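can u pls check wat happens w/ pyridoxal-5'-phosphate
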Amino acid sequence: MNRLIYMDNAATTFVDKRVLEAMLPYLTDMCFNPSSIYDGAQDVHAALDIARETIAKTLNANAREIYFTSCGTESDNFAIKGVAYANRDKGKHLITSKIEHHAVLHSMAALEKEGYEVTYLDVDENGLVDPATLDKAIRPDTILVSIMYANNEIGTIEPIKEISEVCKKHSVYLHVDAVQAYAHMPIDVVSDGIDMLSASGHKFNAMKGTGFLYIKKGVKIRNFMDGGAQEFRKRAGTENVAGIIGMAKATEIAHSEIEERMSHEKMIRDYIIDRILKEIPYSRLNGHREKRLTNNVNIGFEFIEGESMLLALNDIGVCASSGSACTSGSLDPSHVLLAIGLPHEKAHGSLRLTVDHTTSLDDAKLVCDNLPKIVERLRSMSPLYEDFIKNKK
Ligand SMILES: *Cc1c(COP(=O)(O)O)cnc(C)c1O
């Protein structure tokens, strides 16, 4: 029996045992509603305040600027729709990029149906947004720019500081989807000039169904849920107390060792990238070589379907992802790979391996030892590859 090698950390992460331990009291003895009046409930309320403070500190924000949500998707919806509705008197134009997560792209599309206008910026062949292009796209009626911190498929890290300078110049709000970047690299919302930032707990070893939105003091934004007074009257609903406590614990752990984690991941990442590119012909790295999340490997293999590679890897106990939007049930190639200029057939043959701080070099070796055989076997079944080799001779 193979041991499991988990290289799909961009999809979700395992809950850290210490996070689970921190959560348990709030599901048992301390299971009070933080809005109630008795001592136990007030203790829970105080614990939430501390969690808010812990998270705020990691971003150089104030606790009052952290709003708990149910996930990264909700945080993106909250920021984009909230700003759009609250600022419609100023304008109805929004700007984003073509490589955003669907939580952003589909929020934008929903607004388009309501009469808003959206500009989708192109990215270059590495997935970078050009601040000068953004500068030209901003109009007098532009109210919001939403650009991700780092891309979930190809790992490219966007020039957020330069982008925020452009937004400042035009007095336009900047929302950043940092779901992949937060707790995986240091982020300072003040020096980066970010007005709103989305994060999701299950992408950094906390549980699914947790997330938060940073909203800078003074940003004009509509409340997301109507009901009670929770989250400073902006997001009603009894708090996911245990989840929030766990998320704060997870971010505390991650930030206490963030440099070590990053340098370990980078070592593993570069080992995998270097070996694959060297040992497997007709392979290419997708995304920027340096401006890249430390845990992300995304390689395109010509003449191969991503899905068949995933099944072959599954047979040897490796969990990975491909560049196809399999979640949507369609076989459309990823919008991200198309946006960086890959033709359909190349976009289909991509493999994403996302490691973490616990991935060992042995795991990386096992994957790299097996991949050339897998690729060769799959190519040997491809008529396209056969033709290609024949024509070459
Ligand atoms: C995972 C992800 C999301 C969605 O977060 P959920 O918590 O799963 O809803 C949004 N944006 C990016 C970049 C992501 O990677």
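The domain at 5-13+258-392 is CATH 3.90.1150.10 (Aspartate Aminotransferase, domain 1).
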